[in-house]
Write the structure tokens for this entry.
Amino acid sequence: MCIKNKIALVAIFFTIGFTPLQSQEQQQGKASFYAKRFAGRRTASGERMHNDSLTCAHRTYPFGTMLRVLNPVNGKSVIVRVTDRGPFVRGRIIDLSWRAAKELDIISKGVAVVVVSKVNSIIVPYLPSDEIEIPQLELETNEAPMGINPYWQDMKKDLQESRQVPQKNNSPKTSTVASTSKQSNVSASKSSNVSAPSER
């Protein structure tokens, strides 16, 4: 009887102890963060570690899984992406990047108790939905009545007319004056030629 009870207890212990953590909705435990000297090193996923990126290391969640990490002391939370494996220190459930630890305000503590939960859908606050209809705008100009023109338009017309009128008036006058003077010279020369033989 005692052996059967021991076997049952061991079986229960193994099933509870080795239940994957990702099947649990929330985990509560200690979180630490990467030191800045780890910047540029390769993670288990193959990506480079960056201090300013919101990433983390977790033992069981697949790479690319988005996790919400909540600091219950101050209520701050951050969403991080799993890119590495760890932490391999007893009692710790997640290793955060330096930026994520700064967002949670645990830099000064070094290790803090956090609540980790998987994010199923991320709501982006600035992403517009497809249901928004953009109103059609009618762009029209305010045209004044036919008799009223702005002062600057009248000035422009007057300036253009004053520039065009002297050119039109001067060019025909000069041409007519030149042509009449040429004609008078030709006629005078003809008359002198004609009158000269008659005197002989």
Summary: Residues 18-23, 194-200 have pLDDT under 50 and may be disordered. The two ends are 173 Å apart (CA to CA). Residues 36 and 51 are 6 Å apart (CA to CA).
